[in-house]
Amino acid sequence: MNTGQNLRRCGFLCSAFFVLLLSCGIVTVQHAAAKTDDQTPRTSQEVNSALDTLLAAVTDKTIPLTAENLEPLLELVVGKNATPDSLPQPSKNEAGSGIFLRDTINVPLTTFLEYCYDPAISPAALFPASVRLGHWKPGSDIFAAAPLWKQAENLNDMHILRGTEYEEITPDHFSGCYYGYDLHRLLILMPWNGKRVFISVSRQAGPSGVGLKGAIVGDDSDWEYVYTGVEGGTARAIGWMDTYMYDSASVTFFFDDETASRTRYAMFKWLKAGWAGLNVVKKSHIQSGTERFLKGFKAVIESPRLPPAGEIATYAEKLKMQPEEEQIASLARYSARLEEISAEDSILKRDDFQQVLRNGGYGASLTAEQRAGVLVKQYIKHQIGKSPLAGLEQHTQPEG
Predict the structure, then answer these.
(1) Nearest to 60 by CA among 184, 182, 191
(2) Which residues make Cβ contacts (< 8 Å) with residue 36, sequence separation at least 6?
(3) What is the distance, to the nearest Å, from the Cα of residue 140 to the centroid of all Cα atoms in its chain?
(4) d(Cα 90, Cα 67) in Å, to the nearest integer?
(5) Residue of 225, 395, 387 lying closest to 315 (CA atoms)
(6) How many helices (H) and strands (E) does the chain have?
(7) N or C terminus of the chain with fewer C-beta within 10 Å?
(8) pLDDT single digits (tens) 160-204
(9) Nearest by Cα to 74 from 41, 36, 44, 102
């Protein structure tokens, strides 16, 4: 296969991720045509300046953050004159391809914050199609600050938090690659024009670890995956390549709708990833990855059967305290079922996967955090009425 064919195939390797990629801190926005209340159009330069301010402020605490210097961006995204015709479309630049999208989450903003920004709740429970595991690192402001959902109840001032998260994603559809990396985060909760606005900004701390071989088990909508820890991908064309997510960034807005019963969602998103220093990501890959993320997240957060956030946090904390042998025992039926499935799966029957699946050994091949991620995902699936693998609902409640 020639180099051009390799590049075209490798271009699909990062289609399944919800973070954004940016290098050099430069963002170009096309058609930033939102208008202020006096019908004066905001220029692309004004919007870009506000975006650059947010991205730079993730790690630079000396940069002032005020409603005034974010006004052009707030008007574009949150303002009453923002319409589908005024949506900005980030241009391809040194940072790679980018997209902008809007959506609606059918829960109030306080509910969204309570589930998604409690550091005791694993991201694996809330983003089952996109995130394998994640945790806030020590020293992050979120551990010491008052809970964001409490701050949002009577919001009069701007609240700013910073921190760093470790995150590991689920395998990509085409390549089977999965990646782990650190993300610097900036969180801003503020009132603006009668609405509560929450802004989440992320910047990747450095290149990810090398891509590792993983696989989707059955249909991706089942949220089941196998992870080998072996470098490479499962697609034959890239199995030998060392692939990376080189850098990432995001600017995401969550704000009240007109009734405050739902949460509006708007995201600027870029991604740069590939091999041998080449960025091979296209807008279509980012779009499909974001849709994958949103579909899984909304299936969880909008479910009427979702347990209270406090119950999920308590369950997750119990898992952390569970001895290793109990965690492995809890995953015994799960591991046995994966081994059965692998006999009929063209990827799972490969040697790299059999090394972790053979003799029902998958649970024992994982770390404590990885096992907890599997168990909390199975628990959530059962709670919202989605069948866990191997009837694991009988084994999801640790003792004590």
Answers:
(1) 184
(2) 42, 75, 79, 81
(3) 18
(4) 23
(5) 395
(6) 13, 13
(7) C
(8) 999 999 999 999 988 899 999 999 999 999 999 999 999 999 999
(9) 36
